[in-house]
């Protein structure tokens, strides 16, 4: 029987303990070169993300990644009007014990203690909630007005019908909500050793603001990244702006950034879904055939130069006829009551008109592979139906500005939070202004916080211009569209029939909104919200404070007008009496009226119903401001009152 022996080969270093390998000159030279050579390129090229075909994706494969980086200038708790009883019970006990000690006798020590207690009361404990399709994800709780989280949240979602093609995903109309809250924890016991026990504390989260963007905007751009201004309500009861201001970007003189909150976020879809776009062909004509053929060639030429930029030259009207977009631009009269409200302040009139347009409900965009087949209504139809898409809002606002003799054009581009957008560009004496018709806000061209990301196309009643500048960000664009080196125009200057016959009416006739209908709707909204608040609190009783509700009902009409002080001396004295017994937090939220469910969703997102404090009372007031043609501005004021213990 043969014995198989496994022979192992040993090196000299395995046998000799003090063996040192002799390094040759070539090895030494190679080691020195490895130390001095560049580890990576100074400007590494960005790798393109791989796109996945829709038919290879199933449930659970696609996720929305949201990274919450940091925030700037979050409001702090305002305890000047509240008593020291706002502090946790265990903290009050330790304070009273310290004050009786002999070590704290001097005035200086007392002042230091008071400053420490004030900083403890005023410190905000913010956290962020990401909500999508009724699923909520939360970050950890930070501290201070300028917190840093740097946390990534993976959001799961399921496509309707389990179809993950681009056309199916584009039908998702849900919004992605990013809400900022302040977490307050009050201990039930004086012993600080019970602090870590959840059963010995009450948790209350106070809503501070939000950022909302549609899922379609994320689907269209594949990622949303940057520092964005948070939508803060005009009044935050129980909070004040932080005294320590930190600028998220370079200073901007045109806006008081010390009263603005910013949030740095990054959102994307992983993996990215591929889709194919089709070029529209000419269909049924109403304009001259040669003009439409020129428009088609113009579109193809512009797309060949800059494939990712928007260009729209023709659309379909309500009769299904293909016409030039220039025929939608015409000076139209706004409601007469707007003209009579600010006779000596034209800028206030323009702001009021922009607000009126922003209150018209918007039809959500549905992205389609067959991009280019748009149907636009006239401004009169948009007013009568009290609804419209983004472009119809911009056309209506542009036509109103033309009525005042403004030099106004419709701007097509892309916004980071809204996807494809339509703005109104007005030329002033020494600057250009960018108007967002969906929010009513006006931004200067060099505003670093303007949400507009790209300027692609301009059109008025005479021509269409395509931006051929290499950098199409608003701050870098030259808006002098007469220069052919910056802008490519559709129709030449000597083209006959440049200003085609408009499809807009000569005048818009407005009708008054029924006031009795407004009162019935207000009562129905208030009853529904109160029932929902009680439904959302199944384990705690829901008590309503009538005195606070009475005060809030007086304040709401002043918020809509936005003039003068929000609180009169009488209301302020009544509020002071409330602060003697309660710690009050609250806020008003405003939205255009579309349906009752959208108001319920907006109130639910604030999380005001989730308070676990004992003896908590609530106040709710609703106000509806009517505008012509049943355009309504809905205000809901919510307040939470915690009785001093």
Automatic annotation (TrEMBL):
Xref: SMART domains: C2
InterPro entries referenced in this protein's UniProt entry, alphabetically: C2_dom (IPR000008), C2_domain_sf (IPR035892), CEP76_C (IPR056288), CEPT76/DRC7_peptidase-like_dom (IPR056290), Tectonic-like_complex_comp (IPR052434)
Any one Pfam family match given in the protein's UniProt record, by short name: CEP76_C
PANTHER family recorded: CENTROSOMAL PROTEIN-RELATED, PROTEIN CC2D2B
Lineage: superkingdom: Eukaryota
Name the UniProt record assigns to this protein: Protein CC2D2B isoform X1
Domain C2, chain residue ranges per copy: 63-227
Cellular component per GO, a single term: ciliary transition zone
SUPFAM superfamilies the UniProt entry points to: C2 domain (Calcium/lipid-binding domain, CaLB)
Biological processes annotated in GO: non-motile cilium assembly; protein localization to ciliary transition zone
